[in-house]
């Protein structure tokens, strides 16, 4: 399975504490109409950490049903508990997801051998394509390229990595270790274009929640060797990227979706709280400058 282009790490709309299915389906449809290459429900941006298993299964099922095979769905299914990761991966597979996004176990800080055994155990119970998610800023563990190679060699299901270190040297070493055919995806919107240049296939993106045409268009332009257009789109997104991380993700992006009228509310679940009042005009100004609103 090849992953190519821009995949949106979908934000999840809530209304009165519950999943807003109508808004979620409309949002997915808009993403596809805008030319997005793939969808990722139940990731960090989707606030999966505050959902129970029933809600995660429902979110993935809605996404798969609404996508109707038009674009691939990579469902968040990871946990720092191997047992729970197996349960969540079963949910993803039963819902019809094309692949599972598997975060490296957070807080536990397993050894390289522990990482290999973690992913082997999941694959033994639920065989489906895995995108390994390396985000040391949230997990406290950096999956080094040589250790990723150990996982890839031991677990045939591990066919991609979401590399969210922002370290281009490390990203280049992933291709060096795992080969040019390995699916290297950016998990850092600031460095997508240079990551493509060192062998990346695309991105699992936050900003594509609000600028899907720009992010997918940048990837397409790069692959078509229109590097000037790719650079122009990268520069267009740069200030919006900074705004998306003025506070903890997904606070700014969900607030932006409310400003765009795509979500009825910018509602979060604790411990995530709304954007600080003093940042609202700053965010609005950036979105207006980029013609997002």
UniProtKB/TrEMBL annotation:
<feature type="site" description="L-lysine inhibitor binding">
    <location>
        <position position="84"/>
    </location>
</feature>
<dbReference type="InterPro" id="IPR020624">
    <property type="entry name" value="Schiff_base-form_aldolases_CS"/>
</dbReference>
<feature type="active site" description="Schiff-base intermediate with substrate">
    <location>
        <position position="162"/>
    </location>
</feature>
<keyword id="KW-0456">Lyase</keyword>
<keyword id="KW-0457">Lysine biosynthesis</keyword>
<dbReference type="InterPro" id="IPR005263">
    <property type="entry name" value="DapA"/>
</dbReference>
<dbReference type="InterPro" id="IPR002220">
    <property type="entry name" value="DapA-like"/>
</dbReference>
<feature type="site" description="L-lysine inhibitor binding">
    <location>
        <position position="106"/>
    </location>
</feature>
<keyword id="KW-0028">Amino-acid biosynthesis</keyword>
<keyword id="KW-0963">Cytoplasm</keyword>
<keyword id="KW-0220">Diaminopimelate biosynthesis</keyword>
<feature type="site" description="Part of a proton relay during catalysis">
    <location>
        <position position="107"/>
    </location>
</feature>
<feature type="binding site">
    <location>
        <position position="45"/>
    </location>
    <ligand>
        <name>pyruvate</name>
    </ligand>
</feature>
<feature type="active site" description="Proton donor/acceptor">
    <location>
        <position position="133"/>
    </location>
</feature>
<comment type="pathway">
    <text>Amino-acid biosynthesis; L-lysine biosynthesis via DAP pathway; (S)-tetrahydrodipicolinate from L-aspartate: step 3/4.</text>
</comment>
<dbReference type="InterPro" id="IPR013785">
    <property type="entry name" value="Aldolase_TIM"/>
</dbReference>
<dbReference type="GO" id="GO:0009089">
    <property type="term" value="P:lysine biosynthetic process via diaminopimelate"/>
</dbReference>
<dbReference type="GO" id="GO:0008840">
    <property type="term" value="F:4-hydroxy-tetrahydrodipicolinate synthase activity"/>
</dbReference>
<feature type="site" description="L-lysine inhibitor binding; via carbonyl oxygen">
    <location>
        <position position="49"/>
    </location>
</feature>
<keyword id="KW-0704">Schiff base</keyword>
<feature type="binding site">
    <location>
        <position position="204"/>
    </location>
    <ligand>
        <name>pyruvate</name>
    </ligand>
</feature>
<comment type="subunit">
    <text>Homotetramer; dimer of dimers.</text>
</comment>
<comment type="similarity">
    <text>Belongs to the DapA family.</text>
</comment>
<protein>
    <recommendedName>
        <fullName>4-hydroxy-tetrahydrodipicolinate synthase</fullName>
        <ecNumber>4.3.3.7</ecNumber>
    </recommendedName>
</protein>
<feature type="site" description="Part of a proton relay during catalysis">
    <location>
        <position position="44"/>
    </location>
</feature>
<dbReference type="GO" id="GO:0019877">
    <property type="term" value="P:diaminopimelate biosynthetic process"/>
</dbReference>
<dbReference type="Pfam" id="PF00701">
    <property type="entry name" value="DHDPS"/>
</dbReference>
<feature type="site" description="L-lysine inhibitor binding">
    <location>
        <position position="80"/>
    </location>
</feature>
<comment type="function">
    <text>Catalyzes the condensation of (S)-aspartate-beta-semialdehyde [(S)-ASA] and pyruvate to 4-hydroxy-tetrahydrodipicolinate (HTPA).</text>
</comment>
<dbReference type="GO" id="GO:0005829">
    <property type="term" value="C:cytosol"/>
</dbReference>
């Amino acid at each position: 399975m090849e992953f190519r282009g821009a995949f949106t790490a979908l934000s999840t709309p809530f209304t009165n504490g519950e999943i807003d299915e109508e808004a979620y389906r409309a949002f997915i449809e808009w993403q596809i109409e805008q030319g997005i290459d793939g969808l990722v429900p139940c990731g960090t941006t989707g606030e999966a950490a505050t959902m129970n298993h029933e809600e995660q299964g429902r979110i993935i099922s809605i996404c798969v049903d609404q996508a109707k095979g038009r674009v691939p769905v990579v469902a968040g299914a990871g946990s720092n508990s191997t047992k729970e990761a197996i349960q969540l991966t079963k949910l993803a597979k039963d819902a019809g997801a094309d692949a599972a996004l598997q975060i490296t176990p957070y807080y536990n800080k397993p050894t390289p051998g522990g990482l290999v055994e973690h992913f082997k155990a999941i694959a033994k119970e639920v065989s489906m394509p895995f995108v390994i998610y390396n985000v040391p800023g949230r997990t406290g563990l950096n999956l080094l390229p040589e250790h990723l190679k150990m996982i890839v060699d031991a677990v045939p299901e591990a066919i991609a990595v979401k590399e969210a270190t922002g370290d281009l040297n490390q990203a280049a070493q992933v291709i060096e270790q795992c080969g040019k055919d390995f699916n290297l995806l950016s998990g850092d919107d600031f460095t997508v274009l240079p990551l493509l240049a060192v062998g990346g296939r695309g991105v699992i993106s936050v900003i594509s929640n609000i600028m899907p045409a720009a992010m997918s268009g940048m990837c397409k332009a790069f692959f078509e060797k229109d590097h000037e257009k790719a650079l122009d789109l990268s520069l267009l997104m740069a200030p919006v990227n900074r705004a998306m991380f003025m506070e903890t993700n997904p606070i700014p992006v969900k607030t932006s979706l409310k400003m765009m009228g795509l979500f009825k509310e910018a509602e979060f679940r604790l411990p995530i709280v709304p954007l600080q009042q003093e940042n609202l005009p700053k965010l609005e100004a950036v979105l207006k400058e980029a013609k997002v609103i």
